[in-house]
Amino acid sequence: MTVRAVIAGVGHYLPERVVENAEFEKTLDTSDEWIRTRSGIERRHFAAVGETTSMMGTAAAKNALADAGIEASDVDAVIVATSTPDLTFPSVATMIQSELGMRTGFAFDVQAVCAGFIYALSNANALIVSGQANRVLVIGAETFSRIMDWTDRSTCVLFGDGAGALLLEAQEGAGTADDRGILSSDLNSDGTYRDMLYVDGGVSTTGTAGKLRMQGNPLFRQAVSKLASTATAALEKAGVDPEQIDWIVPHQANIRIIEGTAKKLGLSMDKVVVTVQDHGNTSAASIPLAFSVGKERGQIKKGDICVAEAIGGGLAWGAVVLRV
Ligand code: UT7
Fold it and tell me: CATH 2.170.190.11: does it fit domain 2-173?
């Protein structure tokens, strides 16, 4: 018997405030046209004053639990992928655990920036496959609006806030690619690229949270090749051919990266879940948000093969192949 980590529920949360590209024209030398054509972004959500990463993550988690019809008390572990925690510690995951009313199990954060949700999914899968947990809530939640430099037009127009969650559950499989659940994962990082995308503050340096800095164009070039290669590696590990893919659920940083990666994998854009126009780049929240929205739209259905892939600061990148 093979144990598989199967998706039992999906949910998301987006803050109420929506900011259209045109808003930035009032304060920056930019245009709706530039943002749209260079990134595919049309609008993004920003958290309200006082609205935190843990609040948004809790809302997404509650929606995933409701979707699964499972009580929080029946969950063994909570993993939160985030780079924008409420506090330096305790973890956002323990805050959400307490908001959900869970007094048992364990909770921790994973920090791999925009690749965080892929890393969290891979960790959750390992916990389930090794028998350490039967049900794991995997959440991606970010308030990147809090680390934007609002005078830097090359970054502040690209990011947004939000949260998404998947509830994974141990189920028996046959050990083949016909099984439901996570079929493979592929994780990578290379810290020599640290200057390509980073935040210029932190606990042991400035003592402040800092602001996001990015070398957009060099990162763009790394992204397409690394995303295609990690997706290909994960597909090989899963024993799945690219033509068997029903949906790519990519990190939503830039429509041109999403299109370039799909092209390299030989897939047309009608097999890609795209939300970047409405959410912008929500870092670790972007994949579970796209997953939840894709399910809501009727795109992703039970039995579909999905490939999730992401790259971000580190650089850290990776992919997960799963059957819904
Ligand atoms: O989530 C983690 C992963 N993130 C990514 O993978 C992001 C990767 N990078 C990108 O998505 C793209 O590189 C950007 C969207 C950030 C930029 O697009 P680009 O086609 O690489 O443009 P560029 O950086 O080469 O800039 C082109 C021009 C520059 O002007 P000059 O030097 O040609 O005169 C920029 O100064 O566009 C200018 N520019 C802007 N103009 C209007 C940069 N930002 C803006 C702006 N509005 N907001």
Answer: no
